[in-house]
Amino acid sequence: MTGSLRIARLFGIEIRVHVTFLLLLAVAALDFGQGGGIRGAVFGMFLVLALFACITLHEMGHSLVARRFGSQVREIVLLPIGGMARMQREPKTPFAELLTALAGPLVNVVIAFGLGAWWTARLHRLPAVEELDQYLIHPTPSTFIGWLMMSNALLAVFNMIPALPMDGGRVLRATLAFFMSRARATSIAAAIGQAIALGFVGLGLLAPHPLLLFVGVFVFFAAGQERRTSNSSEVLADLSAGEVCHPAAEALSPSNDLGDAVDQTLRTGQSVFPVLYGTDLIGVVLRDELLAAAGRLGLRASLSQVIRRNLPACRAETSLAEVRERIAETGLPVVVFSGERLMGILSAEDLARIADVSSRLARAGIRRPPRPDDEIAVPSPPPLDAPRP
């Protein structure tokens, strides 16, 4: 994620923290420092760090269970509003999603019970609710444990609110998916999530409470995004890679330079250019990498400096939903073959466009475009020593 820094790696999963997290540390230092001075400020910062260590364990719970069911996790990103495990693919079955969603809050429950047991052993009892202010007002080791215990308990309860994309919303969707399609379950869970989000916004305005207002707005739009992603996945699952490959995509030759490739970029809307020598695929050139290299190396630099080789490949009958998973796993386009015949190359940008067009066609009662049978148009490669015009 842009603006995040890697701080650790656990079980093969990168842990990253967003730079805005520093603002939360500053707010905690100011808040606790008002009554406790320097000691209170330091206490507040350490409390936030400990809490986010618990949040990291929460996300690690999701990640390890998801991995058990075959879903790889790229990274865990810590934000001021919490953590986010970025999975390369969603759990494929309702049971897998149910256990994955429950794993995070369960970690917080275990932490809260463990800290509660320590606090009880130290103080010989848990304080009554009306006594909490007295126990938590001064920065001491017992206070630290008390804050951390209550925070984990609240995290478990808050995350189980049945609003997508929160854990409770995912539990709701997984439960519904046992009795209906995932798309329908997502639509219902997203609608419930948006209704709850509007309640958060209302309470945030009436209280007023800026954080609650922010969470409400975030959940509302995130639930809508979950619905759109689900609809997109359903549409893509009905299409195969061979049905949507561009049969007349512009191709480049290994003898071209960056200037030739830039010229093609200006003439076409392609985000990926195959590089062919005769009919043999050498690799691809990604538009963004090409433009960055052109400014750094100049237009007369060799195209070989930006060619991506060893791309993931699939067969023509592979569904676009699977193609999207492969793109998410590698971050690279997927080459489509029919037997030994090259049919085309699909990128993330292509899939977004295809999903949008197919959704509009579906609403008009049209299932899909006709299946193309042609190969990529292959330009005759110029002689390797041909001068640039």
Short description:
By secondary structure, this protein is α/β, with parallel strands linked by helices. Helix content is 56%, strand content 14%. The protein has three domains: 4-160, no CATH class; 181-237; 241-363, CBS-domain (Roll), CATH 3.10.580.
What descriptors fit this protein?
389 residues, CBS-domain, 3 domains, 4-stranded mixed sheet, 56% helix, globular
Task: Describe the fold and architecture.
By secondary structure, the protein is an alpha/beta fold. The protein folds into 3 domains: 4-160, no CATH class; 181-237; 241-363, CBS-domain (Roll). Helices cover 56% and strands 14% of the residues. It is built from 12 helices and 9 strands. Strands 1-2-3-4 form a 4-stranded mixed β-sheet. Helix 1 crosses helix 2, helix 2 (94-123) packs across helix 5 (167-177) and helix 9 (258-267) crosses helix 10 (287-297). Mean pLDDT is 81; it is low at 372-376 and 378-389.
Shape: globular
Average pLDDT taken over every residue:
81
Rg: 26 Å
Tell me the number of structural domains.
3
Order of helices and strands: EEHEEHHHHHHHHEEHEHEEH
Total number of strands: 9
Uncertain segments of ≥5 residues (pLDDT<50)?
Answer: 372-376, 378-389
Structural class determined from secondary elements: alpha/beta
Helix content: 55-70%
User: Largest beta sheet, briefly?
Assistant: 4 strands, mixed
Number of helices: 12
Distance between the termini: 42 Å
Oligomer: single chain
Trace the largest sheet across and list its strands: 1-2-3-4
Strand content: 5-15%
